[in-house]
Amino acid sequence: MFGSLVFFIAISALIFITLLLVFFYCSERQQFFPRPVMTQYEQHMYLRLKQAFPQYHILAQVAFSALITNQNYKIRSKFNRKVTDFVLLNSQCQVIAIIELDDPSHLNKKDEDAFRDKMLQQAGYPVYRYTQIPTVRLLQHDIST
To answer: Can you tell me where the transmembrane regions are (predicted)?
Structure first.
């Protein structure tokens, strides 16, 4: 009797552990996690843009593919994963300006930034690049509409 009780407990424990392992490994693990749309630095710039241009819409983290296109796949592949920091839109949702805020990581990316600017400018968009958060006055001066 004692032996059959031990056997029953051992089998029960084995079944429990097996079910636990199956549940743990077969259950869907979280694969996607939220992340902030903007860095703290970009949030400060966003607020500064709102102060400078209350009459405009300000979009953050806009994909190049929402702004420019090309029929050639190889050309599209040059911009299809690029994102611009801010886009300023008028009340008709037309692009007034594209604003880039360069943090210190851009110091070694001058050529890449120039290429990005060239693509957007070729499509007819004015691009403004700042290395620090400008004053309201400077923004209004630079982006006079």
So the answer is: 6-26
Which residue's structure tokens are 């929402």? Answer: 66
Stated pTM of the model: 0.75
Q: State the Cα–Cα distance between residues 79 and 122, nearest whole angstrom.
A: 13
d(CA 11, CA 33): 39
pLDDT, tens digit (0-9, with 9 covering 90-100), for 75-101:
777 777 889 999 999 999 999 999 999
CB 119 within 8 A of CB 68: yes
The CA distance from 140 to 138, in Å, is 5
Q: In sequence order, which residues have a C-beta less than 8 Å from that of residue 121 and are 6 or more positions away? A: 127
